[in-house]
Amino acid sequence: MQDQGTAFTMPSFAYYCGLTFVTACDPRGLMTDFRLFPFSMAILLALMSASAAQTQPAPKPAAPTAAAPKPAAPKPAAPAAQPAAANPAAGATLLGQFGDWGAYTASPGGKKVCFALGKPNASTTNPAGRPRDPAFLFVSTRPSEKVKEEVSIIIGYPFKVGSEAAVQIGSTNFALYTQNDGAWIKNAAEEARMVDTMKKGADAVVKGESGRGTKTTDTFSLKGLEQALTRIAQECK
Questions:
Q1: Which of 59, 148, 177, 210 has a Cα at 20 to 30 A from 189?
Q2: Angle, helices 191-200/225-235, rounded to nearest 10 degrees
Q3: What is the pTM (predicted TM-score) of this model?
Q4: 163-221: per-residue pLDDT in tens?
Q5: CA distance 78 to 53
Q6: CA–CA distance from 131 to each of 13, 152, 198, 214 (Å)?
Q7: Looking at the chain, which runs of residues are DSSP E strands?
Q8: Whole-angstrom Cα distance, residue 220 to residue 210?
Q9: Is residue 110 exposed (0-12), middle (13-18) or buried (19+ Cβ within 10 Å)?
């Protein structure tokens, strides 16, 4: 059996934002129409196919992106389960591959979005050998929503309800809030610093826990991320 926690299948990015192609979207908002949770975890860019329903959280003051500050400890509404998609970049246009990161663009609903996508180069589970879906790390920009360089993660299994995940980059740690199989930075005010730290770092180590109590560690190489972000900045202005 795959690590499913409470019965749930990996949501598609497209569903999260209610679009055909999007990156994982932060369920707290930062967009007027699409930033719902179930990333239309879109990264933001909903580059995964599936269907589900969700409630939009209360407005606050995806992928993906440094826009207005997000609330520190949101309580997003729970979306319905959706089937997993094998390739979150399906349907998007590859702008270039930079080291271990790809730069992509798509135009769901006529709204242009850009995102950098990375995959882990090492993953472990405790207990060992627990099956799971692939994990992905996104940094997304959605000009129409004034969202720039938003960090989001699709972990490949439903997180333990109410749990937090963590990202360590060198000696710097960032807390993430979780919902279903997605995670976003908990303190929105730290997002720009997190992206800057990622640009300068060698690896990002993501730790989380599933609904079944399986603890996971995913290590993402950050080689090429800065160049990928420069490319999407040129494409999505």
A1: 210
A2: 130
A3: 0.69
A4: 999 999 999 999 999 999 999 999 999 999 999 999 999 999 999 999 999 999 999 99
A5: 9
A6: 21, 22, 28, 10
A7: 93-98, 101-106, 113-118, 122-126, 136-142, 147-154, 164-169, 172-179, 182-185, 203-209, 215-221
A8: 19
A9: exposed
